[in-house]
């Protein structure tokens, strides 16, 4: 997929675009061609999932298997985004079950995951762990200290609540979020993607 010409309105707009482009390419480079491209798969495989690019005058940021970031999406105003941490500090905003897409845990009763499931169990790391990994998903969302686990707990909640919804749309299923976290080569890039672009709603 070729990338349409881009005319940023300012140098700061160009810088933000280039940072996003580099982030997407980093997530989708190298091993992605061999089938490891989970982070952006939802964008490529479902035409309804686009991310609005600020200042793009109708263009949408759309991932592809070739690492392209921007493509035209006329008539599609759906935007990929998710809720910020504060939203999930309220227990009433959590889905009753966090098993969307039939994602199960090997370390919980019946495989069922809820806001009160420990991060290590929800992400299939084991039955117990230390530090942030031993906190529940809800505890992590209430944690004032930034951490990789907190970011992925929020992304996991967004994936369960918003994946496949009409508007807004979160582009990843719970299993995708877990896969990115467990990939040592992409975990930090995934954190940047979730933090900077996919947790923008109250």
Commentary on this structure:
This protein is mainly alpha-helical and about 200 residues long. It folds into 2 domains: about 10-70, no CATH class; about 85-195, no CATH class. Helix content is about 35%, strand content about 5%. It contains 8 helices and 3 strands. The protein has a 3-stranded antiparallel β-sheet, with no helix packed on it. Strand 1 and strand 2 (about 60) form a beta hairpin. Helix 1 packs antiparallel against helix 8 (about 185-195), helix 6 (about 150-160) packs antiparallel against helix 7 (about 175-180) and helix 6 (about 150-160) packs across helix 8 (about 185-195). It is globular, with a radius of gyration of 17 Å. About 40% of the residues are buried. Mean pLDDT is about 75; it is low at about 1-10 and about 30-75.
N/C terminus separation: 34 Å
Q: Level of helix content?
A: 25-40%
Number of domains: 2
SSE run: HHEEEHHHHHH
Q: Can you summarize this structure?
A:
With 202 residues, the protein is mainly alpha-helical. The protein contains 8 helices and 3 strands, in the order H-H-E-E-E-H-H-H-H-H-H. It has 2 domains: 11-72, no CATH class; 85-197, no CATH class.
List the helices and strands and how they pair.
Blueprint: H1 11-28, H2 41-45, E1 51-52, E2 59-61, E3 70-72, H3 85-89, H4 119-122, H5 137-141, H6 148-162, H7 174-181, H8 187-197
Antiparallel strand pairs: 1-2, 2-3
Helix pairs in contact: 1-8, 6-7, 6-8
């Amino acid at each position: 997929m070729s990338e349409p010409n881009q005319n940023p309105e300012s140098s700061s707009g160009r810088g933000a675009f280039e940072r996003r482009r580099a982030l997407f390419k980093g997530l989708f480079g190298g091993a992605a061609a061999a089938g490891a491209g989970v982070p952006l798969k939802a964008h490529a495989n479902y035409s309804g999932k686009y991310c609005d690019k600020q200042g793009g005058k109708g263009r949408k940021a759309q991932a592809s298997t070739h690492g392209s970031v921007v493509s035209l999406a006329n008539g599609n105003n759906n935007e990929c985004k998710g809720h910020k941490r504060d939203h999930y500090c309220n227990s009433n905003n959590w889905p009753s079950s966090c098993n969307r897409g039939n994602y199960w845990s090997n370390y919980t009763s019946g495989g069922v995951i809820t806001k009160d499931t420990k991060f290590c169990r929800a992400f299939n790391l084991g039955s117990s762990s230390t530090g942030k990994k031993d906190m529940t998903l809800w505890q992590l969302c209430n944690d004032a200290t930034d951490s990789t686990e907190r970011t992925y707990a929020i992304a996991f909640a967004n994936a369960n609540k918003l994946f496949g919804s009409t508007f807004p749309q979160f582009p990843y299923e719970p299993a995708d979020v877990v896969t990115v976290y467990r990939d040592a080569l992409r975990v930090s890039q995934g954190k940047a993607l979730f933090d900077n672009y996919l947790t923008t709603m109250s």
